[in-house]
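Entry — protein

Goal — fold tokens:
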Amino acid sequence: MLTKLEELILLSVLKLGENAYGTTIYKYLQEVTGKKLSLGGVYVPLDRLTKRGYLSAYSGAATSVRRGLSKRYYRLTPRGVTALNEINRMNEVLWAGFTDLARPIPK
């Protein structure tokens, strides 16, 4: 099982495609969730997801803008795609029948 933040990170990497690196993932998550996140709060799960095989990481070219440092880019692995498909399937099952949450929930 993945945490909600791990799920959101995997979805962000998928959405950002070739532009998925730490800072863009961090900014995208803040934009989508409306929550103030710490940069470390994104990098720690990124490292964990990479170690667990849900993401692969690779270094881009060093740039003068980054004082010769390269960006670490991420992409989904087949295991990451499988995990997102399983989460989506479970959510569809769990949400089935709940079309209007504005109505009172039956007791």
Observations:
- The radius of gyration is 17 Å.
- The domain at 4-62+69-94 is CATH 1.10.10.10 (Arc Repressor Mutant, subunit A).
- Residues 39 and 95 are 32 Å apart (CA to CA).
- Strands lie at 55-59, 72-76.
